[in-house]
């Protein structure tokens, strides 16, 4: 999803050490040491294979905004769930994929993520969006 690519386009390219904890903190001691030892290789490989950079980040930001706009239109009628009256796989999938844009309190990684400056501005701007509030509710109610 483009949400992760947007985050990585700034964080991994400009502040790679801030991303390291989300990869290493949940591992056992030996695995965490290995990840820390080869972190530069991991970061460089991710940047190359994901096609990350400032220009790509701007392109991805535009795509994210279009996607958020589309989800906002689905929620205009005040519904609690995206499809029907109960939690579905669609709700879970959307909440999971958009969690980086909300820093959902119930999410084990994104709630404690070190957020780079430009991405932080976007997050602050997007918090009042209906889809952002939807994702936060999904984590509060169903996590």
Topology, please?
Elements: H1 2-14, H2 16-24, H3 29-37, H4 39-50, H5 54-74, H6 89-98, H7 117-126, H8 130-142
Strands, total number: 0
Mean pLDDT equals: 91
Outline the low-pLDDT stretches: none
- Structural domains: how many: 1
This entry's quaternary arrangement is single chain
The geometry reads as globular
Q: How far apart are the termini?
A: 21 Å
Radius of gyration: 16 Å
> In terms of structural class, how would the helical and strand content be classed?
mainly alpha
What about the largest sheet? none
Beta strand %: under 5%
Helix and strand pattern: HHHHHHHH
Helix content: 55-70%
Number of helices: 8
What would your notes on this structure say?
The protein has 143 residues and is mainly alpha-helical. It has one domain (2-142). It has helices at residues 2-14, 16-24, 29-37, 39-50, 54-74, 89-98, 117-126, 130-142. Helix 1 packs across helix 2, helix 1 (2-14) crosses helix 4 (39-50) and helix 6 (89-98) crosses helix 8 (130-142). It is globular.
Overview features:
mainly alpha
């Amino acid at each position: 999803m483009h949400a992760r690519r947007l985050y990585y386009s700034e964080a991994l390219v400009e502040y790679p050490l801030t991303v390291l904890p989300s990869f290493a903190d949940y591992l056992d001691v030996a695995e965490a040491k290995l990840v820390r030892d080869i972190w530069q290789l991991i970061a460089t490989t991710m940047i190359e294979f994901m096609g990350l950079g400032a220009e790509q980040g701007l392109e991805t930001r535009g795509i994210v905004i279009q996607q958020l706009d589309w989800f906002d239109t689905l929620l205009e009628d005040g519904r609690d769930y995206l499809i029907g009256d109960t939690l579905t796989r669609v709700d879970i999938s959307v909440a999971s994929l958009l969690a980086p844009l909300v820093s959902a309190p119930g999410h084990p990684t994104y709630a404690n993520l070190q957020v780079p400056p430009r991405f932080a501005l976007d997050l602050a701007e997007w918090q009042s969006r209906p889809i952002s509030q939807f994702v936060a509710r999904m984590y509060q109610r169903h996590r």
